[in-house]
């Protein structure tokens, strides 16, 4: 079944006019033509009545035995749920259910009192990340459990990023504290190399995996290290002129972008040798991100700047957009929406020209690099589901999920949504 398409931001020409609109003469209809038309009309009536009498197709809906307030993640045929074990919200367990039936498979207590917020699947393990606040200590930690059985494997401080060689990079600290690094084997937690908490950290990714790490200090040298071995690849003092503190550094593609000094200056360095490429004064910067053919800077003056990554030349700037990112060769930006919704638009990255307005949605992505789905409350109840085609600038309505509150997670071919009573239901999306 193909849903209707809402065409947003795409101009279409009207139908071609009849080149000869004058009335035409025709011979009177013959009797056999009337009989044929009557037969066709009767056939159409019968087909319509038959379709109306047929029961509507049953929707594939599964109610899952997950308690209200749980944090859930779906991986293939497995649904994982972080659930409370009693009166204390800090005592949690991880439960696994087989999809699509929702049959319980196993449950395992989590070994530390913490506010858990992350679930990651890696090399047959389930990595549960949270912030420990119990009597055993304070700080971020990761617990590894066996995906098939829930058996406890190991526990380490920090939150994890997968490396290109399959090992796991764990970062501890943050939130104004120096970040410590350790790389461990996911099978058993064996430490491969580590750095004590002495610096802030940025990571370069090759696809979805960490490739290199940057350790920078506000009043000291900056290092680029190989993420697999910890070997130092480049080292330099990147503090701004006058030796003022370095406010922040950020990896954007093959560049390391820093900000600091008076007035506030953004400077780009090549990540291989930390060689200076360009510098531009823009005032305080809240964040920077790779927007494909440009770099996006969000300034303290509530402006979004598009910077040429090769020369540092400002391509355009606007106070209309909150933030931007590259998707499918286009630049998506967001503006203020209504409540939890964001308004999404598509721009030409080099000029800032608006190409399409996609409307207000909560966005979900179907896997890495997969399709974008948007949800929003339907006026009559439930949740409207749309598929966003960024390159075409269109939204195709995929479904209306009647018993959902809008707390959803996209899975290939399915949508997992919370219901008003706090339970979860899995809805099969139509093609």
TrEMBL record:
Gene3D superfamilies (alphabetical): YVTN repeat-like/Quinoprotein amine dehydrogenase
Where are the annotated segments for Disordered?
A: 1-31
Q: Which residues form the Pyrrolo-quinoline quinone repeat domain?
A: 93-237
One Pfam family, short name please? PQQ_2
> InterPro entries of this UniProt entry?
PQQ_rpt_dom, Quinoprotein_ADH-like_sf, WD40/YVTN_repeat-like_dom_sf
Q: What is the designated name of this protein?
A: PQQ-binding-like beta-propeller repeat protein
- Native organism is Micromonospora tarensis
